[in-house]
Write a structure and sequence with these properties.
single chain; about 325 residues; mainly alpha; about 0% strand; rod-shaped; disordered N terminus; disordered C terminus
């Protein structure tokens, strides 16, 4: 056989081995792209950080909420204590005045039960001091209480005048220690009653009582402002922590949406395109994530080996044309 014809016969097989181009196959340039694995790891790391922060802010929110509950509870307790303080003081005044006016020992018993059994005023101040009120404010309340207790001696004296005037035999032991002055002891029953009324219903008594009442009221209003400020501060802290918590949740949702979008863009859509092209017997487009691009490049390399390109078909046509030419010449 002619060496030239033998070389010509080898060319198609060589071209077929070289992908039908007659040239050495050049590897397709790989575009690195974005690694979906790296994206997932980064997203998981960010999500873990957000979850940790969310747990942290949730715990802080719980602590602030507990503080707000405590402040609200203290506010209610102190308001009740303030009410008891004012009501206890007014209750003593009411009963001593009614006893002086009516001489009914029931009011006498009510007075001493409130003063030495119920002790609403003392309990109220103790509650305020234990509830975290400022020491200066509690001191002022205690000073007002001491002035009120000093005024109680005036009330004791008035009650003793009524007891002497009405010749009451059964009365509290505390009043036994109260002795009338020499002049007052010689007063008539009516004069003793009038003096008792003047002592607990006169202008001097009301001025002292009003001064104490005013001081208590001012101190309680200040305490109320302090408690409201503490509640508002706790409420602001609560709203801030809730805002931080909502921000973390929104950030987590946004990150989840970004993760889903990137997964669809880098993985799902390229896979759909690859499936469509492979079904049509075409090469797969090299798109999407780095992992998918590498897989597409490998697929296309196998595709090029299994499906020779057009140059091989052209060479076959030229070979067929050369074989038919001599026959045409012989006929001529």
């Amino acid at each position: 056989m002619d060496p030239d014809s033998e070389n010509d016969m080898k060319k198609p097989s060589q071209r077929r081995m070289n992908g039908g181009t007659g040239m050495k196959p050049t590897p397709e340039k790989k575009r690195r792209g974005v690694s979906i694995r790296v994206i997932h790891l980064a997203m998981v790391l960010c999500a873990a950080i957000i979850v940790v922060m969310l747990i942290f802010f949730t715990r802080r929110t719980s602590a602030v909420f507990t503080e707000l509950q405590q402040e609200t509870g203290n506010y209610i307790v102190r308001r009740e204590a303030a009410h008891d303080l004012m009501e206890g003081s007014d209750y003593l005044t009411e009963n001593v005045q009614r006893f002086v006016l009516e001489g009914n020992t029931k009011y006498l018993d009510n007075y001493f039960e409130e003063a030495f059994v119920s002790k609403r005023r003392e309990s109220a101040i103790m509650t305020m001091s234990e509830g975290g009120a400022e020491e200066e404010l509690v001191t002022r309340l205690q000073e007002a209480m001491e002035e009120s207790q000093a005024l109680m001696y005036r009330e004791y004296y008035a009650m003793k005048l009524v007891i002497e005037a009405l010749d009451i035999r059964d009365y509290p032991e505390r009043l036994e220690a109260i002795e009338l002055s020499e002049n007052d002891s010689f007063l008539s029953a009516k004069e003793k009653m009038d003096l008792a009324k003047t002592m607990v219903m006169g202008s001097a008594y009301f001025e002292s009582k009003e001064l104490i009442h005013s001081r208590l009221k001012d101190d309680l209003e200040e305490l109320d402002e302090m408690m409201n400020a503490a509640r508002q501060e706790a409420n602001i802290d609560m709203m801030r922590e809730l805002f931080n918590q909502r921000t973390m949740v929104i950030g987590l949702l946004v990150m989840l949406a970004v993760l889903i979008g990137l997964t669809v863009w880098l993985g799902t859509l390229p896979l759909i395109d690859a499936d469509r092209n492979a079904g049509k017997g075409k090469r797969v487009p090299v798109t999407g994530s780095r992992e998918f691009r590498a897989m597409a490049n490998r697929y296309n390399a196998m595709y090029d080996q299994l499906h020779p390109r057009e140059p091989e078909a052209e060479e076959s046509a030229e070979t067929d044309g050369g074989e038919n030419a001599p026959e045409g010449g012989e006929e001529a």
